Amino acid sequence: MTSTPTTPDDTPADQSRGDAAEPSAAIDSVVVPDDTAPAEDTGPKRVAVIVAHPDDAEFLCAGTVARWAGEGHHVTYVLLTSGDKGSSDPAVTPEQLVATREAEQRDACDVLGVADVIFLRHPDATLVPDLAMRREITRVIRQVRPDIVICQDPTVRFVGQDYLNHPDHRATGEATLDAIYPAARDRMTFPELLAEGLEPHKVREVYLGGAKEPDVWVDITATLPKKLESLRRHVSQMGDWDPEEMVRRWAKDEAEQHPGNGEYVEGYKYFKLD
Ligand SMILES: [Zn+2]
To answer: Measured in angstroms, how far is the CA atom of residue 83 from the centroid of ligand 1?
Structure first.
């Protein structure tokens, strides 16, 4: 969420960091099925993007989402809040803002080819990564059953001298990672979910967007226009500001710092889980 069009709250983490440890080939396990992989590893995958606010995912990973959706993977968005504090207009109520921002998020998802959007509707700017939040995200993971989760990096507290990361971003990243491992996976954790008929589920791959230490980069050169268009659908947040110059520069800078991954890229800290 962001109240001032010229200062969106979703600046990526320090892009100067992140030594090229893992090649972007890790991505290819997603988008280019390996002939030697077991049958269950080929074909369309299920991807869940779990973030705090409307527009977070567009800043973090929309190029990747558009690419994967275009390649036939099934993408579900999960938003912890509907961004009801994201306006400084005294004439707008939180309830009105929820309706506006959910509609904008659905529009952005239509641009990107996202199949489903789940709004958990917690109040904006109040998220705490407690057990209740971990249970709720665990429930969603067991329902959606994603192979891959993209979420926010909970270790990013601040960047440079001009960016304090939003506490909701950190809380969402923290609770999501704790839900992926071990809660969603372990049968005896949150037995009330089992009683609801929700069997344990293993997420196989995790991508942290806006990461402090990215080690995988996705080429978004072909889908950058869709990323920009999806951002523009967040009309209440963009105002008269066009995100193109800044977003294009971020993706170009990231690519130049990690050559060989494409002209424009999105970077992630990547995990492959057993
Ligand atoms: Zn946000």
So the answer is: 8
